[in-house]
Request: fold
Amino acid sequence: MLETRLTRLLGITYPVIQGGMAWTSNGMLAAAVSQAGGLGLIGAASAPPEVVESEILKAKRLTDRPFGVNIMLKSPFADDIAQICIKQKVAVVTTGAGNPGKYIEQWKAAGIRVMPVVPTPALAQRMERAGADAVVAEGCEAGGHIGEMTTMNLVPQVADAVSIPVVAAGGIADHRGFAAALMLGADGVQMGTAFLCAQECPADLAYKQMVIEAKGSDTVVTGRSIGLPVRSLRNKFTRRLLQMEEERLSKEEIEEAALGSLRRAAMEGDLETGSFMAGQSAGLVCEIRSAQAIIEELMESTVRYLGSYTQGRGMTIE
Reply:
């Protein structure tokens, strides 16, 4: 048992959130994580409203525990999905790729906990002033769209900047990362890459296998030259994007080349033209397991690790 401000805020057993990943975080995965005591998230991404609502209803059938929806605010359907979350009374909304300010008041009025993902301490402060209940401080070690600050530096600075609970994200996949996040001032962790290899995750087996076989240096960031940095596993597709950037092709040309690439990776396992988004923690993910097994092992190991760390290393604290 590890109770924190986050578990009390969300009414969950363990301070573990599953990242709301596009194409792979569906109702089944979210429900499995929540049923295991964490907080599962449905990744809305750019999916149509009816698809997101269908996944919410699926999660409701599979668990009576709190779960949430991650809304990508640049989605053309963001307004509709914001209202669906109210209609379906989801417990939590996390947001990325934009400012959720215009929704926060109505979400909170509906009893929804609001947790924006932030890449800087300044944005964390803005979100607290806007009424956010907590923030997810995500470092650049994470998979997918990223900022520039590392988790090690971002989390303590965000913890110092706000009074609301802070969730650490980016590069965390085991008990050592979890323990480090707590020492940095976080109230819990969010993990995405680790849950890509959950049995309940709908990602194609080829995607999961790439994560399992990856080493820590097998990810690369594309899109920095056009202001849209994305971390993925290295493959033919990422080499093509980097070559396009080196040739100084336009933002529009690069974005067109990337269109649909995540879907092809997640749903088809397309090793040639798929974008296999994953964080640097892929080097720590070694097998496909159930969401429950992932969470239980993480929690048991973290509690044991925190209790034995100093003694096991010959340290004395006076």
Q: What stands out?
A: The chain has 14 helices and eleven strands. The first strand starts at residue 16 and ends at 18.
